[in-house]
Amino acid sequence: MKSFRFNDNFKIIFPDDWKLEKDNEVISLFEPEKGVGALQFSSYSPPHDIDLIKVDKELEDFLKDKYGVVEVKLANNYSYFSITDEDNLFWRYWLFKGQKAMMFISYNCEADDKGKEDKIVDEIIKSAL
């Protein structure tokens, strides 16, 4: 297993056969040989007190511009949402709150490939908790 860190707040663990690429402040993870989708990670520090941020509202505000009405779910210190868009892409989104920063994660694949990488994606996401 390999790992990377964001802002000293989040440590992500991922399989050895997955590749990490960094472009500006976005990190992408994918399995280059047999993979069907990609995870992307970005981090930001909010302009106000992070303790006041409600991760479900924050993710909902971000996604409603793209999708309209969304039903974001909340679990402990993160929120999540999934949807198949008009381009027939399946998307999963997460927003995590750390001590000093927020981490936004997205995963996408063709809608026909939905679920194929769920187990490993869920394990990668759980490593951030």
Descriptive notes:
- The chain is an alpha+beta fold and 129 residues long.
- The chain has one domain (2-126): 3-Layer(aba) Sandwich (Protein Transport Mog1p, Chain A), CATH 3.40.1000.10.
- The protein contains two helices and nine strands.
- It has helices spanning 55-67, 118-126; strands at residues 2-6, 10-14, 19-23, 26-30, 37-44, 73-75, 78-84, 89-97, 102-110.
- Strands 3-4-5-9-8-7-6 form a seven-stranded antiparallel β-sheet, with helices on one face. The chain has a two-stranded antiparallel sheet with strand order 1-2.
- Strand 7 and strand 8 (89-97) form a beta hairpin.
- The protein is globular and about 40 Å long.
- The model has no long low-confidence stretch (mean pLDDT 91).
Task: Indicate how many domains the architecture comprises.
Answer: 1
End-to-end separation in angstroms reads 17 Å
Average pLDDT rating? 91
Q: What is the ordering of alpha helices and beta strands?
A: EEEEEHEEEEH
Portion in strands: 35-45%
Largest sheet: 7 strands, antiparallel
The CATH homologous superfamily is called Mog1/PsbP, alpha/beta/alpha sandwich
Helical content (DSSP H or I, runs of 4+) = 10-25%
- How many β-strands, per DSSP? 9
Categorize the overall geometry: globular
- Radius of gyration equals 14 Å
Per DSSP, the total helix count is 2
Q: What's the CATH class, please?
A: Alpha Beta
Main-sheet strand order equals 3-4-5-9-8-7-6
Spans of at least 5 consecutive residues whose pLDDT stays below 50 are none
CATH topology: Protein Transport Mog1p, Chain A
The secondary-structure class comes to alpha+beta
CATH architecture: 3-Layer(aba) Sandwich
